[in-house]
């Protein structure tokens, strides 16, 4: 208790933790109802934990924080307490991970499907067009990828009205936060093991999250499948990182290369082509990368398309169950509906990394502009049903301060997949990522300042 008093004293000197008055209800997960001093104390302990365990990022305002290790670090934004999530939907999402892994692999083998599905997009989207060019070159030389490695993350929201788990998107390249999300789950388990009794919460209800180790294990297994003990694993982290050092490369992991900004000149595209031509295992290969586009997500949701790639009826039904409404813009009926009720849709270009989607009135304006222009520009986008998840009472930690807000959450399930010819070596669900953002924000990534890292509390 000495410790607690000391903590409270320290915290009360800071400007953190202003209380805003929300109606108090007695629900177990109305985190806003907890006593101010108790929350201060949890916040303090969490900040200490984050500092000691590396739940940290470089602070944007400090110049050297991105280049010099150990300089200008700040805790990653996180939720103070884990997000309640129904166990039945949690299990459903975990169960889907190996099915999506397998689907990505099957679709990646159908070069014609990928080229045809993206043919209209190719005409108007320069970035996708360049990826497709690399893909066509590989088809021409009949390039075979015997060993295939996928480190994926399928993202979901729980739609409140239908109480169903709906997929937001499937990431096949640079699936982020495997490292920090493991730490947030550990932090929440630690918090509940200390404060669980007071809060009425049980640390065992936060599922263990081993995503970072499982990703590394998959990379290591791919390396050993390559079977050259002198070869190395190469991480592509930025456009300039093309130095191959004269060493054999067993595995190329792309932590960059998903956005046009990663290709500032022709030399980056030449390097990307060279890597695809090489015998190294690419994570992802150009085909896996293309399977992760929004356009392919939309094509796979059409009737009878999953059946082209999978045999098991039960698996097909399970995958389809999590598909939200997805449409191509050449469907004039849907464009009309979206102009009438834009708030019910999200408009998405073929981009990754957050901040690219169009919402609300901007959907109407963009659609009307496209219709007036009458060009084929519409093929750059897909339309998606807007999902409205249940709002919860969250406590968000950022820059050492907490504040209460109404929030919605997105659950990502990591999947690892490794095969060598006919032998599937790994096909697993591999941890999770929970992101929570203020409910008033449309998009809002963690880095952008709206969302925080979170974990799951099974209900
Ligand atoms: P990215 O590849 O850039 O991450 P996403 O498809 O994941 O693109 O969209 C970014 C964010 O936009 C998501 O994290 C989610 O918050 C929001 N979002 C995307 N699609 C929907 C949707 N159908 N309904 C509600 N929110 C969505
Ligand atoms: Mg994405
Ligand atoms: Mg996303």
TrEMBL record:
One of its GO terms (molecular function) is glutathione synthase activity. Pfam families: GSH_synth_ATP, GSH_synthase. It is an enzyme of class 6 (ligase). Homodimer. PANTHER family: GLUTATHIONE SYNTHETASE. Its EC number is 6.3.2.3. ATP binds at residues 169, 294, 348-357, 359, 384-387, 410, 437, 443. Signal peptide: none annotated. Its cofactor is Mg(2+). Mg(2+) binds at residues 169, 171, 352. This is Glutathione synthetase. Residues 247-291 form the Glutathione synthase substrate-binding domain. It catalyses: gamma-L-glutamyl-L-cysteine + glycine + ATP = glutathione + ADP + phosphate + H(+). Pathway: Sulfur metabolism; glutathione biosynthesis; glutathione from L-cysteine and L-glutamate: step 2/2. InterPro entries: Glutathione_synthase, Glutathione_synthase_a-hlx, Glutathione_synthase_C_euk, Glutathione_synthase_N_euk, GSH-S_sub-bd_sf, GSH_synth_subst-bd, PreATP-grasp_dom_sf. It comes from Arachis hypogaea (Peanut). Substrate binds at residues 153, 435. Keywords: ATP-binding, Glutathione biosynthesis, Ligase, Magnesium, Metal-binding, Nucleotide-binding. SUPFAM superfamilies: Glutathione synthetase ATP-binding domain-like, PreATP-grasp domain. The keyword Metal-binding applies. The keyword Metal-binding applies. Belongs to the eukaryotic GSH synthase family. GO terms for cellular component: cytosol. Binds 1 Mg(2+) ion per subunit.
């Amino acid at each position: 208790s000495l410790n607690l008093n000391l903590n409270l004293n320290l915290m009360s000197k800071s400007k953190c933790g202003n209380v805003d008055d929300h109606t108090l209800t007695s629900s177990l997960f109305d985190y806003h109802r907890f006593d101010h001093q108790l929350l201060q104390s949890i916040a303090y302990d969490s900040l200490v934990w984050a500092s000691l365990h590396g739940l940290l990022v470089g602070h944007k305002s400090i110049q050297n924080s991105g280049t010099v290790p150990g300089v200008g670090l700040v805790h990653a934004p996180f939720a103070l307490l884990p997000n309640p999530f129904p166990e039945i939907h949690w299990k459903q999402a975990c169960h889907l991970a190996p099915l999506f892994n397998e689907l990505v692999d099957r679709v990646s083998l159908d070069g014609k499907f990928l080229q045809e599905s993206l043919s209209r997009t190719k005409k108007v989207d320069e970035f996708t067009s360049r990826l497709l060019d690399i893909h066509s070159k590989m088809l021409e030389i009949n390039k075979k990828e015997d060993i295939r490695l996928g480190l994926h993350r399928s993202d979901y929201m729980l739609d409140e009205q239908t109480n169903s788990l709906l997929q937001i998107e499937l990431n096949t390249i640079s699936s982020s936060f495997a490292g920090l999300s493991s730490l947030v789950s550990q932090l929440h388990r630690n918090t509940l093991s200390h404060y669980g009794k007071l809060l009425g919460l049980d640390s065992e209800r936060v599922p263990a999250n081993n995503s970072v180790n499982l990703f590394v294990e998959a990379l290591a297994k791919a390396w050993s499948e390559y079977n050259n003990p002198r070869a190395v694993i190469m991480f592509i982290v930025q456009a300039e990182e093309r130095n191959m050092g004269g060493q054999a490369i067993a595995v190329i992991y792309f932590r960059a290369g998903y956005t046009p900004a990663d290709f500032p000149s022709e030399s980056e595209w030449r390097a990307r082509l060279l890597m695809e031509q090489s015998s190294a295992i690419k994570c992802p290969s150009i085909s896996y990368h293309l399977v992760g586009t929004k356009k392919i997500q939309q094509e796979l949701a059409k009737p009878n398309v999953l059946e082209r790639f999978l045999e098991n009826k039960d698996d097909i039904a399970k995958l389809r169950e999590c598909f939200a409404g997805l449409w191509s813009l050449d469907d004039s009926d849907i464009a009309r509906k979206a102009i009438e009720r834009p708030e019910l849709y999200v408009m998405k270009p073929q981009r990754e990394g957050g901040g690219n989607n169009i919402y609300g009135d901007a959907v109407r304006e963009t659609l009307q502009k496209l219709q007036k222009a009458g060009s084929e520009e519409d093929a750059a986008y897909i339309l998606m049903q807007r999902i409205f998840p249940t709002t919860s009472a969250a406590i968000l930690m950022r820059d050492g301060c907490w504040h209460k807000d109404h929030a919605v959450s997105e659950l990502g399930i990591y999947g690892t997949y490794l095969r060598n010819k006919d032998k599937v070596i790994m096909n697993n669900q591999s941890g999770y990522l929970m992101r929570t953002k203020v409910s008033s924000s449309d998009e809002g990534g963690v880095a952008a300042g709206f969302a925080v890292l979170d974990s799951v509390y099974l209900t």
